[in-house]
TrEMBL record:
Family matches, as InterPro entries: AKR, AKR5G, Aldo/ket_reductase_CS, NAD(P)_OxRdtase_dom_sf, NADP_OxRdtase_dom
Name under which the protein is recorded: Aldo/keto reductase
Lineage: Bacteria, Bacillati, Bacillota, Bacilli, Bacillales
Domain NADP-dependent oxidoreductase per the UniProt entry, residue ranges: 29-264
PROSITE patterns registered for this protein in UniProt: ALDOKETO_REDUCTASE_1, ALDOKETO_REDUCTASE_2, ALDOKETO_REDUCTASE_3
Pfam families for this protein: Aldo_ket_red
Family: Belongs to the aldo/keto reductase family.
Top-level taxon of the source organism: Bacteria
PANTHER family in the cross-refs: 2,5-DIKETO-D-GLUCONIC ACID REDUCTASE (PTHR43827), NADP-DEPENDENT OXIDOREDUCTASE DOMAIN-CONTAINING PROTEIN (PTHR43827:SF3)
Organism: Neobacillus pocheonensis
Keyword Oxidoreductase: yes
Gene3D superfamilies named among the record's database cross-references: NADP-dependent oxidoreductase domain (3.20.20.100)
């Protein structure tokens, strides 16, 4: 039941993950990320999503350390960057992230991109399995993996991914991938759910927002939840952080859900995971 910001979905290993978290992509390390994370925790968020490449793990860690929220109530995610694919280099990169975050354990560790040009994501997955078996991380998963990348992992793993974090928004709802993940008990998670503000003027969404007396951002977050997708909207403004998560006092009708689904054009805003090779 979706009651509040602490409401969770249960991953395939039994770990509970909040439906809504704060994403900190492009949030500057230091005061900006510290204040953003603190604002989120004060607003009731318990899930924070960062990554090695965001270069703000230290600030996230500082905010966690200075918070009054008990660590065991938080769900902290970070991600392995592309340059560190490979078994041993993954283990080293994980240690570096943990040192920056100042944590004894992590809640979720993700392979940030499949990097098929390197051909090491299966080997990299083996390192995540070790970290999981050693109790250093409570759940493991991937990010930006297409169906065929997931099939490679599933054919070669001891422990299947618990999460796949991907670009997901009304213009790109990845239905086929979502259905595949559901069949394989992999929780889909949306990054850039608000399309970096690119949907705020969309007439269909504006009309629905007016109907429910909510913002377009709130409508999109609610749509994510009702489609069974974990979501991590990003903001650095405390009032927006709180507003984005004020979505538990209404429910979108099936008709309105279908109107939002109809906005899908199957087009990415960002890189195709088969072509993204940045290190």
């Amino acid at each position: 039941m979706l009651k509040n910001l602490q409401s969770t979905t249960t991953l395939n290993n039994g770990v509970k993950m909040p439906w809504i978290g704060l994403g900190v992509f492009l949030v500057k390390d230091g005061e900006e990320v510290i204040s953003s994370v603190k604002a989120a925790l004060e607003a009731g968020y318990r899930s924070i999503d960062t990554a090695a490449i965001y270069r703000n793990e230290e600030g996230v860690g500082k905010a966690i350390a200075e918070s009054n929220v008990p660590r065991e109530e938080m769900f902290i995610t970070t991600k392995l960057w592309n340059a560190n694919h490979g078994y041993e280099s993954t283990l080293v990169a994980f240690d570096e992230s943990m040192k920056k975050l100042g944590l004894d354990y992590l809640d979720l560790y993700l392979i940030h991109w499949p990097m098929p040009s390197k051909g090491k994501y299966v080997e990299t997955w083996k390192a995540l399995e070790k970290l999981y078996k050693d109790g250093r991380v409570r759940a493991i998963g991937v990010s930006n993996f297409k169906i065929h990348h997931l099939e490679d992992i599933l054919a070669n793993c001891e422990i299947k991914p618990m999460v796949n974090q991907v670009e997901y928004h009304p213009r790109f709802n990845q239905k086929e991938l979502h259905d595949f993940c559901k069949r394989n008990e992999i929780q889909l998670e949306a990054w850039s759910p608000l399309m970096q503000g690119g949907l705020f003027e969309e007439p269909v969404l504006v009309e629905i927002a007016n109907k429910y007396n909510k913002s377009v951002a709130q409508i999109i977050v609610r749509w994510d939840l009702q489609t069974g997708v974990v979501t991590i909207p990003k903001s650095t403004k405390s009032h927006r952080i709180a507003e984005n998560a004020d979505v538990f006092d209404f429910e979108l009708s099936q008709e309105d859900m279908e109107k939002i689904n109809s906005l899908n054009i199957g087009k990415r805003m960002f890189a195709d995971p088969d072509e993204f090779t940045k290190e």
